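does this look right to u?? magnesium ion version
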Amino acid sequence: MNTTDTNPALNPAGTTDMTADSTSGNAGGATAPPRLEVTALSKTYGSGANAKCVIEDLTFTVNTGEVVCIVGPSGVGKTTLLKCLAGLQPATSGTAAIDGRTIAGPPPEMALVFQDYSRSLMPWLTVRKNVRLPLRHLHLPTQEMNQRIDTALEAVGLAHAANQYPWQLSGGMQQRVAIARALAYRPEILIMDEPFASVDAQTRFELEDLCLKIREDFGMTILVVTHDIDEAVYLSDRVVVLGSKPARVLDVIGIDLPAPRDQISTRSLPEFAEQRTTVLSMIRKPA
Ligand SMILES: Nc1ncnc2c1ncn2[C@@H]1O[C@H](COP(=O)(O)OP(=O)(O)OP(=O)(O)O)[C@@H](O)[C@H]1O
Ligand SMILES: [Mg+2]
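got this back:
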């Protein structure tokens, strides 16, 4: 996984491959073994009288090449879950595994885009150097490294800002730098925690389509946490709906919409509205 400090892949941007639970959907292919497998995962912060169980007994899988979105109420434990999947903190019980290997630290094939992008960028480095940061561990030839950086910055529409510093950019631009850093690393599994929350509607649509394009182009497996139900339906092969408290899987909903998806025509389909209603009513159902 790429996070800034330890794992080049997990750092600034992250990826993960997930196939949703066995309860529904087979968009990733029913016969393929799950790329990511979460089994009875629980996480409790603190101990004794201060113990707080945030996640309880989560089980689901993500298949290779799937886009899976996780939706759930604020504070339910989505970021906590992603940190466990990214190997940044241990689960209290249960396991998360990639290709059957239990995750015990940042997996090299994974990159993570943090929810708090402002803390993931180095203010003293230019945009270009921020994007280059996780690549330094890959020992790429200079030409390939530069080409990856250029391609990633172009993909997020920031080629013109390569020599600026993060503090010279808007919040949405900074988030796009964090996404570019993940793209340049080219992880097999990309995990993003509310990656498009701070950008305007038009940019959000563009980044959603970029997400689907990189899945096609690089065969990435992508796991996204989002609060936006429409976004979850638009992006996903499956949606994992979390209930609270503690966080648990309420359902995994297979999204059956034609490919390629298109911001106007897909969102106009009656099936889109139906799937949106399904996810929404699951979230709003009394516990
Ligand atoms: N390191 C920690 N120590 C103790 N409690 C924590 C820690 N990290 C998170 N929590 C608590 O765990 C709960 C879930 O937090 P988390 O950030 O995972 O939620 P979330 O679903 O990502 O929320 P949001 O949608 O607002 O981003 C919260 O009550 C939070 O206060
Ligand atoms: Mg969060």
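The domain at 36-284 is CATH 3.40.50.300 (Rossmann fold). idk if thats expected tbh
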